[in-house]
Prior knowledge:
The complex is a heterodimer of chains A (about 80) and B (about 150).
Chain A: H1 2-82
Chain B: E1 14-23, E2 28-39, E3 44-56, H1 60-133, H2 136-148
Antiparallel strand pairs in B: 1-2, 2-3
Zinc ion (ZN) binds next to loops of chain B.
Amino acid sequence: MMLTxxxxxxxxxxxxKIQALEAEKVxxxxxxPHLRENLTLLKLEHQVQALxxxxxxxxxxxxxxxxxxxxxxxxxxxxxxxx
Amino acid sequence: xxxxxxxxxNVSEPLRTWPIVKAEKNGEIVDCTVGIYxxxxxxxxxxxxxxxxxxxxIETDKLEELHDKIKMVGKVKQELxxxxxxxxxxxxxxEESLILARLEDKAENLKVEISLLKEVKRExxxxxxxxxxxxxxxxxxxxxxxxxx
Lengths: 83, 149
Ligand SMILES: [Zn+2]
């Protein structure tokens, strides 16, 4: 009787533990896909940002080049007109 | 039930009875009661033996030996029954420990699964944290403002 009692107690204890672990597992299984989605969004945001940076750099380069072209073409014109 | 040898009808009450003990050829002794029955239909009397028992003469020593053997077998039977009880108890204990072992095994497997899931979660969280706190976004956002202007 004593043995059965302790077996029942132990069994109940283990079953409760298993129940808690299963609940924890379910929670983690639910959390992980959300985290994956968040990470994907963040990566996309970073990708967008990187592309925007590249565009910014290219625009700046284009602007510099345009400025340079302007600088080179204007003195030539004055030289020509002075002749 | 005695039956009339002529008409085969049952006759329940004998007219008279007497015991008979006779030795057979094989050494057995037959003990029975012989009755004389009367069939009222045929009006005939016929004998019929009832309570037939086959007996054997046995020496007293052999009979005592047999009694001793019976006692011994009884003791052996009791011991075996005790052993069976004991084994049944042991079986119950083993079954219980098997149930507990299976439950413990299940809990251990769940713990391993959870630790793997936690590891995955931690990795994802650290990657998110890294991307969240990476300075590029803030610096680049200010750049973006310049472009927009
Ligand atoms: Zn008859």
